[in-house]
Amino acid sequence: xxxxxxxxxxxxxxxxxxxxxxxxxxxxxxxxxxxxxxxxxxxxxxxxxxxxxxxxxxxxxxxxxxxxxxxxxxxxxxxxxxxxxxxxxxxxxxxxxxxxxxxxxxxxxxxxxxxxxxxxxxxxxxxxxxxxxxxxxxxxxxxxxxxxxxxxxxxxxxxxxxxxxxxxxxxxxxx
Length: 175
Known about the structure:
This protein has helices at 5-33, 42-45, 86-115, 143-155, 161-173, and strands spanning 49-58, 66-75, 81-83. The protein is α+β, with helices and mostly antiparallel strands. It folds into two domains: 5-115, no CATH class; 130-173, no CATH class. It has a three-stranded antiparallel beta sheet, with no helix packed on it. The protein is rod-shaped.
């Protein structure tokens, strides 16, 4: 398959769209409903420890309940607990999910091109050459009609001026 600039541009646009959707729809959107989904960002945001999602629920007064959620990085050496910022985590995991969306888009596109039948174009008409064209079958037509047809061919650049002059001379000779 030959790639042209349009296909490359469309591929780049689909890649950008995929990464955007990976960050916004999957990492932020689905990640809000299922927080462990963003654990794939661990190598980037918590390389030296364990990434933990924690939910703390507490009540300060009767009838009030507060829930605090967050991601923490627990360093394996010092055992210190550091709160992770959500945005780097969402960007790293979203980038990964965006690449997965892009790969899925490529598979869908590729399978779609395989299932389509190849386009069949009509065969091009052979080039008109005055020396290959015979007016013998048109002898019944008047010379004026033949001259008009010849002039129309010349005006549409279907024949050259030399071919026009040659056939014109043949028509005049038949008179």
